[in-house]
Each structure stands twice: as structure tokens, then as C-alpha cells.
Amino acid sequence: MDVYSILDQARFFDGISEASKRILTRFCRPLERPRQSVLFREGETGEAMYLLARGRISLGKVSEAGDETVIKVLKPGEAFAEVVLFERRVYPVTAVALTDVLVMRILRRDMLDLLGQEDFRNDFIAMLLRKQRYLTDRIQHLTRHDVAERLRAFLAEQYGERLDIRVEMNKKQLAAAIGATPETLSRLLQDLKRRGLLSWKQSEIRVSPRFWKPDA
């Protein structure tokens, strides 16, 4: 397994120097998990951060009322759980494998040693700032757009503006990912199907080109 290539292709590590990536490869521990596995749960002690190399992972939170909210669906190349390095020693979300996955696990103690090196520390802080901007944009998107727009944006971000999409999540998970209730998503899907814009059968979504137009 070429760990350096995995790091080099990861969007999360864009901008980090080659030297820093090569140092980091020594501390990456490959970990494979099957579909529906829980990598960690919200509130558990955080011992490592992760980089997704293959598959898709859902990061979510559960409210006191038991409602699930998917914060993000990760694609290969994205890192997660880095918050345990700085702000807290517990995981703030639950990570669930939507498919069979391969992740690189980097122990907290190893990363803290690396952050003692100034060049690596500067690279890493820049990456965290980029991710923080993404989360801010994500919150604004959920509050400013209606469900149809959020569905369109989510599918485009995860799969591109394709006409045939194979999804790894069920409708309840997708509803949580776009900040909607399952009932609201169900009504939207029925309306889109009636209008000939989108149909969802099992794990296959078929999309009309008109769906990708803002005025669809």
C-alpha cells in the first residue's frame, strides 16, 4: 500500500509540503472496516484522527430528542476527527461507514509530536482553517436554502451532475444529510418523480437533465 500516494491525493492535505507528507506516512495506520461499521461514537474518548482513503463515511450527531443530523458525508481524501488534537478529548460526532472503507488512522500522541515541528505545524493549521470555513458555509447553506436546493447541491457535491447515481445511504440518512425530516424528503421525492425530474429505486437514482437546472 502506497501511503504517500494516498496522502498526496487527499484534498485535506493540499498545500502541505512534500517533506511533511513523507514524515506523516510513518504514522499512518491502515484500517479497513465493513459497511455499517461504527468507527467511533459521539462522546467517546478520542485517541486518533482519520483520513478516508476508500469508500464513504457519514459524520452525524443525535439530539436529546433522538433526532439524527448528518453533519457531512465524507469522500476519499477527506480527514476527520482532527478536533481531538486540540479542543477536546472526546469525539464530537459519530462516524459510520456507508460502504466498505479504508482509513488511515493517526494516533493523537503521534500527531502532537509532529506538531512540535514548526513547518509541519504551520501546514496543519492552514488546513484546519480551510475546513472551518467549509463548516461555516455548510451551516449557512442549511439555513438559507429550501430542501430541493439542498438535495440538488448535495447530490452534485457527492456524485457530480450525473444522470445515473448509485447511492450508499438510505433515504433517512440522506434526509439527515440535507437537514430535512424523512417525511419532508419523501414528499419532495414524490413531487420530483411526478414531474419527471428524479426517481429513486433501491440504491439507484435516475435524474433528468432538467433537475440540474436552478429553475427545474
Question: What would you say this structure looks like, in words?
Answer:
By secondary structure, this protein is α+β, with helices and mostly antiparallel strands. It has two domains: 3-143, Jelly Rolls (Sandwich), CATH 2.60.120.10; 146-212, Winged helix-like DNA-binding domain superfamily/Winged helix DNA-binding domain (Arc Repressor Mutant, subunit A). Helix content is 38%, strand content 24%. A four-stranded antiparallel sheet has the order 1-8-3-6. It has a four-stranded antiparallel sheet with strand order 2-7-4-5, with helices on one face. A hairpin with a 2-residue loop joins strand 10 and strand 11. The protein starts with a helix and ends in a 9-residue tail after the last strand.
Give a topology summary:
Layout: H1 3-9, H2 18-25, E1 29-33, E2 38-40, E3 48-54, E4 57-62, E5 68-74, E6 79-80, E7 94-97, E8 101-107, H3 108-114, H4 118-144, H5 147-159, E9 164-166, H6 171-177, H7 182-194, E10 198-201, E11 204-207
Antiparallel strand pairs: 1-8, 2-7, 3-6, 3-8, 4-5, 4-7, 9-11, 10-11
Helix pairs in contact: 1-2, 6-7
Describe the global form: elongated
Query: Tally the helices: what do you get?
Result: 7
The topology string of helices and strands comes to HHEEEEEEEEHHHEHHEE
CATH architecture of the largest domain: Sandwich
The first-level CATH class name of the largest domain: Mainly Beta
Number of strands: 11
Q: State the strand order across the main sheet.
A: 1-8-3-6
The CATH fourth-level homologous superfamily of the largest domain: Jelly Rolls
* Poorly predicted tracts of residues: none
**Rg for CA atoms:** 19 Å
Q: Name the average pLDDT.
A: 83
Cα distance, first to last residue? 45 Å
Might you state the CATH topology name of the largest domain? Jelly Rolls
Domains, number: 2
**Beta-strand content:** 15-25%
- The helical percent reads 25-40%
Class by alpha and beta content:
alpha+beta
* Sheet with most strands: 4 strands, antiparallel
